[in-house]
Design brief:
Length: 414
């Protein structure tokens, strides 16, 4: 009985998601109908409530997909504290680095069409980057091999971000304004070309501007701007109506404000740069979205590249994207830490073995997050995906770490 009640509540709560999208809606199911214990799944609301009570976040939206259906969808807390605007299931969030898997999907579409080869040097498509050098012992020297398309998909190209480290190359990145909002694609590539690589391609995993380079590659190969390519080839086919690089005026009342860890506002929806189309479409972190939209993207992945009869990628391509692709010397990944048991595929982190780093993670699980504490993970063997979206900067693990054990613990028979 409780399962049916939760199902009905989810259907009512989800009306906002359906109303905002004219495409076929993702189906809903009662947890018990897809092998989940509804009473245990209720732990999601309790866990999020504890974070709200401790004032560790302003609000959040959580969603669980199982066997092709939404089994949990809830809004928690505030979209904007100052105006007392409640969080809603169709609230629009800055997803920052959750942009990356979408752009990597675009690159893999070009690979499948034969327009791009994974093991070609990126300079074959972006000649501006033909003369990249490695900074080693204070001198710029030629790399042992040029960075490839595969390298920029798995963050082994030699690039960095600049703000995660203190090396000389990191300092040069910061000084260059590599991700300045005044950039366009041409000026971005000019800056990349002027900077040295931090290491020889393939020898390390370093979180980096690689996906912004991917975006430039998509533009060069397709002849379209990145936003146009994504809209026509991914967002519109999947019915992702609220996903893009800015928030139109008619949707700004659904745009979440950003808060720091003390719940002080750092950017409101009426003062954000996201009110207007950017000069540079950042493939690494420029998009906004909703849990409902992103669920469509994840269901496409779980379906092996297809959703509602529209195929974006072949199943074999999805398998390649979501398996560890790192050479031994570049494993495991880490951003100011060492993430034991975590490798990287072509756009996603991938769990290769159990470890204390994330004790609830399952082998074969893949996912990624965004700077404002949005996150998703997918477990193919469980036919399961989970999305948590909030608006807290800098990034926290709170919701992922609190909810992962709850969700996996709700799988019947576990």
């Amino acid at each position: 009985m409780f399962s049916r009640v939760l199902f009905i509540v989810a259907m009512l709560v989800a009306l906002n998601v359906h109303d905002s999208c004219s495409a076929d809606p993702l189906p809903f199911a009662a947890p018990g109908d897809v092998g989940l214990d509804a009473s245990k799944l209720r732990g999601i609301e309790l866990a999020v409530g504890e974070h709200l009570d401790r004032k560790e976040l302003a609000g959040a939206v959580t969603l669980v997909l199982r066997k092709g259906s939404i089994v949990h969808l809830e809004a928690h807390g505030w979209q904007d504290i100052e105006s007392q605007t409640p969080m809603a299931t169709d609230t629009i969030f800055r997803i920052y680095s959750m942009t990356k898997p979408i752009v990597s999907t675009a690159v893999m579409m070009l690979v499948e069409s034969g327009q791009v080869d994974l093991d070609d040097p990126i300079a074959d498509y972006l000649p501006e980057l033909s003369n990249l050098m490695v900074l080693e012992n204070g001198k710029r020297i030629p790399p042992k091999r040029p960075p490839s398309v595969r390298d920029i998909l798995r963050h082994t190209a030699g690039f960095t971000y600049g703000f995660f480290g203190n090396s000389e190359v990191d300092q040069l990145y910061v000084q260059s304004g590599i991700l300045d909002k005044k950039n366009d694609t041409a000026s971005f590539l000019e800056k990349v070309a002027s900077l040295p690589l931090a290491y020889h391609p393939g020898e390390q995993w370093v979180y980096s501007i690689s996906v912004d380079v991917q975006g430039a590659l998509v533009e060069a190969v397709s002849g379209q701007s990145l936003d146009r390519f994504l809209k026509e080839r991914i967002l519109e086919p999947l019915g992702m109506k609220d996903t893009g690089f800015f928030v139109p005026s008619g949707k700004r009342d659904r745009f979440a404000s950003i808060y720091n860890h003390d719940l002080e506002p750092t950017e409101s929806n009426d003062s954000s740069d996201y009110r207007f189309p950017p000069r540079f479409f950042s493939g690494g972190g420029g998009m906004v979205s909703t849990v409902g939209d992103y669920a469509r993207f994840l269901q496409m992945l779980l379906n092996g590249g297809e959703l509602f009869g529209k195929r974006l990628l072949q199943e074999s391509t999805i398998r390649d994207m979501t398996r560890d692709q790192l050479p031994e010397q570049a494993f495991p990944i880490g951003i100011g830490d060492t993430r034991d048991g975590f490798g990287f595929g072509l756009g996603f982190n991938v769990v290769t073995h159990t470890s204390q780093y994330d004790s609830d993670a399952r082998v074969g699980e893949y996912g990624w997050g965004g700077a404002a504490s949005t996150h998703f993970w997918v477990s193919p063997k469980d036919d399961l995906a989970v999305i948590t979206m909030e608006q807290t900067m800098p990034y926290t693990w709170n919701l992922e770490r609190s909810l992962k054990g709850v969700v996996y613990g709700a799988v019947v028979g576990e």
